[in-house]
Amino acid sequence: QVQLVQSGGGLVQTGGSLRLSCAASGSIFSLYVMGWFRQAPGKEREFVASISSTGGDTYTDSVKGRFTISRDNAKNTVYLEMNSLKPEDTAVYYCAARRSHISKYQYWGPGTQVTVSS
């Protein structure tokens, strides 16, 4: 079992920045692929970014060049640095974890609200 505790988020103006954090406990963090997802009102949850156990990262096209995912295995924490925020980035953001050999994310954080005002 993996427990995920999220922090960060909040209200920011267009063009601003925020950093989300997700601390994991309960298992060997370095073995897990960590991901960030988001869900806007009235929309389905969508993939934002992921980072493998060795640091390889992937992003959805709409955030490339603006968001950066990183991990600190010593702190069991994954981060999402969000820059040049846009109103369309407004959503509840979730961190998630899965083992490398499993395609479906197994563990989810509670979510944190990010609101970008225009």
In short:
The chain is mainly beta and 118 residues long. It contains no helices and eleven strands.
Give a written overview of the molecule.
- The chain has 118 residues and is mainly beta.
- The chain contains no helices and 11 strands.
- It has strands at 3-7, 10-13, 18-25, 32-39, 46-51, 57-59, 67-72, 77-82, 91-99, 107-108, 112-117.
- The strands form 2 sheets. Strands 2, 4, 5, 6, 9, 10 and 11 form a 7-stranded mixed β-sheet that branches.
- A hairpin with a 6-residue loop joins β4 and β5.
- The model has no long low-confidence stretch (mean pLDDT 96).
Rounded mean pLDDT is 96
- Poorly predicted ranges: none
Strand content: over 45%
How many helical elements? 0
Global morphology: globular
Q: Give me the secondary-structure category.
A: mainly beta
Give a short account of the largest sheet: 7 strands, mixed
Q: In percent, how helical is the residue content? A: under 10%
What is the β-strand count? 11
Order of SSEs, N→C?
EEEEEEEEEEE
Radius of gyration: 13 Å
Q: How far from one another are the termini?
A: 40 Å
